[in-house]
Amino acid sequence: MLHKTRGIVLHSFMYNDKYAITQIYTEEFGRVSYLTAKSKGKHTRVPKSLFHALAVLDLEVEHKNLRDIQRIKEAKVHLPLSSVLFDPVKSTVSIFLAEFISHISKDIQSNKMLFDFICQSMRIFDLAEDGIANFHLVFMIRSSIFLGFYPNAEGYMPNMFFDMQNGEFVLTKPFHPHFLNPDDSRIFLLLLRMNYENMHTFSFSGKQRVSIINRMLEYYKLHLSDFPEMKSLEVFQSFFHE
């Protein structure tokens, strides 16, 4: 049966000489693996050039519940992106976030609010000229809203600890090891105050950026089962470790 859905491209890998398998986060079905041809033919209804990291597409797909790999009948651009394709920094951020989205969407069938958030984020990212170094930080922390574990910053006071296991700031050091010391907790609070509109006003050192993103990934590992190591992390951090 054919279905129409929007989809966000995550990544592709070779299947055989003629086909690749492309992982797409779809609005209707969640994360799905699709068989895509490697052909660049001008008249194909599924052009290879469309399937770059975080491309937002309109898809017509076959979907059978018992099939592990589905098929795409037609693909078109839903959200045109320009700077994301040609800016090397934005392209690197896109690859990192595509891997991140792949991990956070692994166990969910569909989440329309998360999907809409990603689409809107990509629209903002493509147009953004300032604050690019903070975009991924805002994206990662705001994504937790739609997954049910956004940190609670109510009642924060100086010298509090951030309890990552329970997602809240506390007065005394937790008995478990998953917490931030008061200095790191203060920086984490700044992260919670950032959004796409004000992200250009926040400045972090290279050391702080490395610490923030590592702690963010630790936070996700605590709240999502089987969240793996990010393969693109080392290359990605080299762009922002100044």
Description of the molecule:
The mean pLDDT is 90. Helices cover 38% and strands 23% of the residues. Helix 2 packs across helix 7, helix 3 (112-127) runs antiparallel to helix 4 and helix 4 runs parallel beside helix 6 (206-223). It has 2 domains: 1-80, Nucleic acid-binding proteins (OB fold (Dihydrolipoamide Acetyltransferase, E2P)); 82-242, de novo design (two linked rop proteins). The strands form 2 sheets. The protein has a 5-stranded mixed beta barrel with strand order 1-2-3-5-4. It has helices at 83-86, 88-104, 112-127, 132-147, 182-193, 206-223, 233-240; strands spanning 2-14, 19-26, 30-37, 56-62, 69-79, 161-163, 168-170, 179-180. It is α+β, with helices and mostly antiparallel strands and 242 residues long. The chain is built from 7 helices and 8 strands; from the N terminus they run βββββααααβββααα. It is globular, with a radius of gyration of 19 Å.
